[in-house]
Automatic annotation (TrEMBL):
Species: Phormidesmis priestleyi ULC007
UniProt keyword Coiled coil present: yes
One Pfam family here: DUF6825
This protein's name: Thylakoid lumen protein
GO BP terms in the entry: thylakoid membrane organization
Presence of the UniProt keyword Metal-binding in the record: no
């Protein structure tokens, strides 16, 4: 009986050690996968933010070029006199006002 108790003790101890090692490996692998997932998601987010910033900058530049082409004024330097640009804008406003008055008079 003494031998069987000692044998049972060592069997139980071996089971506990192996179960602990397997649990440790499982937790380590799970944490490793979680770390990889977190790193991938951070990289995806960084890539997304970079793409958004690039597209916004590209769209802004296109809009500024279109604006520059329509007004004749370049950002940072002027190709036309500022007063001439103001006069053109006032003329456009006057044309729009007269067109709006014509439209309103037809509507009544």
């Amino acid at each position: 009986m003494n031998n069987s108790l000692i044998h049972a003790f060592f069997v139980g101890r071996a089971i506990a050690e192996i179960a602990y090692e397997q649990l440790e490996n499982g937790v380590t692998n799970a944490l490793s996968e979680l770390g990889k997932f977190d790193a991938e998601q951070r990289e995806n987010l960084r890539t997304f933010v970079d793409q958004v910033a690039e597209r916004a900058a590209r769209e802004e530049e296109i809009a500024m070029q279109a604006r520059t082409a329509s007004t004749g004024v370049r950002v940072g330097s002027q190709t036309e006199d500022l007063q001439a640009t103001i006069d053109e804008l006032r003329a456009e406003i006057a044309q729009l006002r007269s067109a709006l008055q014509v439209y309103r008079s037809r509507s009544v």
